[in-house]
Amino acid sequence: MAIEQAGSRPGPGQAALRYHDATKHQFHRYARSLGYLDWATQPDPFRRYDGARLVELVRTSARPDTAYDDLYGAAAAQAHAHAIDQQSIGTFLRFSLGLSAWKQHGASRLALRVNPSSGNLHPTEGYIVWRGCVSHYAPREHALEERCRQTDAGDWSLEEDAFLVGLTSIHWREAWKYGERAFRYCQHDLGHALAALRFSAAMLGWRVAILPRWSSADVAALLGVDRDDDFANAEREEPECVVIVTPRETGAWLDRDPAPIVGASRNGQWTGKANALSADRVVWPIIEEIAAATRVGDANQGPRRKAQGSKPKAPAHPRTSAPAHPLAADVILRRRSALGYDPRGVLRREAFLQMLGRLQPVASPWDAIDWPPQVHLVLFVHRVQDVAPGIYAYVRDATALPALESAMRSEFIWENDSNDPNLFLLAPIDVRATANRLSCNQDIAEDGFFSLGMIARCESNLRERGDWFYRRLFWECGIIGQVLYLEAEAAGARGTGIGCFFDDPVHELLGLTGHEWQSLYHFSMGLPVDDGRLTTEPGYSWEAGG
Hints:
The chain is α+β, with helices and mostly antiparallel strands. The protein contains 15 helices and 20 strands. The protein folds into two domains: 253 residues, NADH Oxidase, CATH 3.40.109.10; 189 residues, 3-Layer(aba) Sandwich (NADH Oxidase), CATH 3.40.109.10.
């Protein structure tokens, strides 16, 4: 199904909305996919560059001693910033894009990563640009593949005070299982990866920020993913973004012209050929079309300061005390996606309110992005202590409240929680069966403490900014998801992202019409029921005794 009809020239945002409509799940049909898993073409989860020099990163079971709660501090422990060197970069990558564990059932063995992914398929690839070298991170080996020795980069001197991280997506990894809807999942995963980078940097006392002046072509040239000869028989990587990582303030880097360092890559010495991930592939034209429509062009470049919304109100509730003061590294490595929940589990009210409070854009990880909140939550609360079951709204920016109220059902009561000015009860009802049905009949939406939908302001954003912002809306959802994943682990629970849900039935339940507000991602949390048939090993053998 083509996004654009022959002879038509859609206005800003229309290409994204057409793709979005075409890939919605409905009660009577799911978005197009093969409908089965072709195991003969299952993609390799690990990209490698044959012929590139492999630089092994430091292997140690030692972990940073940053407390989990300190990940959310305004300064993110910058007073104790680590020096930027090969060892600290290795630690940064290990706790952001590295392996968290290996799972095995019989002869089947698979790797889990710190940054979660839909179906554990991992379309996101990471690159480091530092000291005149562009390197690809190989998570299985915990090593850097040196792809390019750059020429002079001018004022982009990246030595002791900063380095760049580039992120790309391999659409085929998700499309193999999910078909046309896969582009959405790649963008969720990109948001998860961004948050994982920010949290890992916070452990080391560093800051992270997306560089806003970079076009998609700039990102591709810097990382070498536009080099046709290097991908002759391999799946291509879609350029996503470049972020600056530094122990200093990020402001000096945000408006810097990318041309010198992009030119340093274009004129550099490249080595390595990308490996083919599958013996064969299915082409989904609509994914190629939406990727092209949502790239950032030169016209979108230029300084983009963070828009000023209302100042978030801090919820007046205490922090959870169980478990007491976990280390950030331990929480990050424990993170898993739940496979099922014990419906007898109950979440404490204080922990629930703290989780929501972490989603207010007052500190890390929200300082990594350059736009105010566009995504709000509709929660289906089932088992939270002293919180009535029902449908709730959590408004992350108070300026959006009037628009949300007017867009939703008139019978919603909008009763404000006494301890959180951003939380509103809409309907006090048993919503377990409804949550299950809306999330593609999945028990994980019903059996946990709560599930939720992430409701984004779409049409006006896409019309005013352009189709490229479609990706950013999903990135914001992924960041929310990563916060909730870690909050679940810190509270002794578990979460899971839900990409399969019935889009328009969700909107109908809430009374939403048109394209202004769209549900982009679902999530649930509960007391996990683990599969005893699975065995777990550390992500790296050298950590087994740590």
